[in-house]
Amino acid sequence: MNGFTTLSASNVLGYEDAKSTAEFLLSRTDHRPTIGVICGSGLGGMVKLLTDTDSFEFRDIPNFATSTVVGHAGKLVFGSLQDKSVVLMQGRVHMYEGHSARKVAFPVRVFKLLGVKTLIVTNAAGAINRTYNVGDLMVICDHINLVGLAGLNPLVGVNDSRFGTRFPPMSTAYDKGLRSLGLKLASELGMKEFVREGVYSFQSGPMFETVGECRLLNVLGADVTGMSTVPEVLVARHCGIRVFGVSLVTNRCVMELDSDEVPNHEEVLMMGEKRSADMQRLISEFVGKIVD
Ligand SMILES: O=P(O)(O)O[C@H]1O[C@H](CO)[C@@H](O)[C@H]1O
Ligand SMILES: Nc1nc2[nH]cnc2c(=O)[nH]1
């Protein structure tokens, strides 16, 4: 099944599949995580924060897709962080790799059945907002789901009420309390100058945007743009998991024709490396302060 499967064929990877994957994992680790973390491009170094780890390759986990993108190790790691039990995806899969939205977001349904109550999503993104700088971190307060508005989203298909309601609201997708906590911590950690709050726009990729597309996203109110995160957030909210999201601005989107700036994945990974220490500090402190 690819990312552009028709609506009628999209009922695979349901509750029973998520349950059997969760049982597979729970029988192989003693961790019982209440916090899930998904690491974006170049941000998988966060795994170093965990102690007492149990690690699984995506390819060895039933029903998981394998990551094919450089900068996404493709490992699911259970461990302890700030005395809390955490499950972390070191890398993710994307729709542009040929997967349905449902397949991309499937790990979040597994998280739910593992007992996860809070999901932290991170990503690398390009800046649409002209006041943003490369290296900024952006706490996500909202998203624009260009892919999903047209019907390509993981909630399409028969609704399973064991996960959630048929018509979940998304106006509160990014938890207000968690956003406040993240911004407060950023201030306390001396990161105020480069931490923003803004809107993430999602399109399928794998192309970086044209000049016209970037201008359009600007008019629509997007602050940054990327090719991930939103399918995972939709599934998390549908099944009642709270979400905190952070984008790392790895490049400025090109808004002038014939500009010399050309976005590329190498630059994205390099910036991930450069800001990894700050991202790790913020997420680590954040995990320490989460109350279930
Ligand atoms: O969103 P993450 O996985 O962080 O990765 C972002 O970086 C890649 C492009 O360089 C794309 O996959 C885009 O979505
Ligand atoms: N779509 C998109 N994804 C990104 N990921 C990192 N940078 C970018 C970007 O400029 N555009």
Lateral strand order in the biggest sheet: 5-8-7-6-9
Basic shape: globular
Q: Please, how many helices?
A: 7
Poorly predicted segments: 1-9
SSE order, as H and E? HEEEEHEEHHEHEHEH
Helix/strand/pairing class, anyone?
Answer: alpha/beta
Pfam family, one: PNP_UDP_1
InterPro entries: Nucleoside_phosphorylase_d, Nucleoside_phosphorylase_sf, Pur_Nuc_Pase_Ino/Guo-sp, Purine_phosphorylase
Family: Belongs to the PNP/MTAP phosphorylase family.
Binding site for a purine D-ribonucleoside: 209, 251
Helix and strand topology:
Blueprint: H1 15-26, E1 35-38, E2 51-57, E3 75-81, E4 84-90, H2 101-114, E5 118-127, E6 137-145, H3 146-149, H4 176-188, E7 195-202, H5 211-220, E8 224-226, H6 230-238, E9 242-252, H7 265-289
Parallel strand pairs: 1-4, 1-5, 5-9, 6-7, 7-8
Antiparallel strand pairs: 2-3, 3-4, 5-8, 6-9
The site of guanine (GUN) has 14 residues, from strand 5, strand 8 and strand 9.
What does this structure look like?
- With 292 residues, the protein is of the alpha/beta class.
- It has helices spanning 15-26, 101-114, 146-149, 176-188, 211-220, 230-238, 265-289, and strands at 35-38, 51-57, 75-81, 84-90, 118-127, 137-145, 195-202, 224-226, 242-252.
- 30% of the residues lie in helices and 23% in strands.
- Helix 1 (15-26) packs across helix 2 (101-114), helix 2 crosses helix 6 (230-238) and helix 4 packs across helix 7.
- Residues 1-9 have low confidence and may be disordered.
- It binds 1-O-phosphono-alpha-D-ribofuranose (R1P) and guanine (GUN).
- Guanine (GUN) is lined by residues 124-126, 205, 208-209, 225-227, 250-251, 253, 263, 268.
- Residues 40-41, 69, 92, 94, 123-124, 205, 226-228, 265, 268 line the site of 1-O-phosphono-alpha-D-ribofuranose.
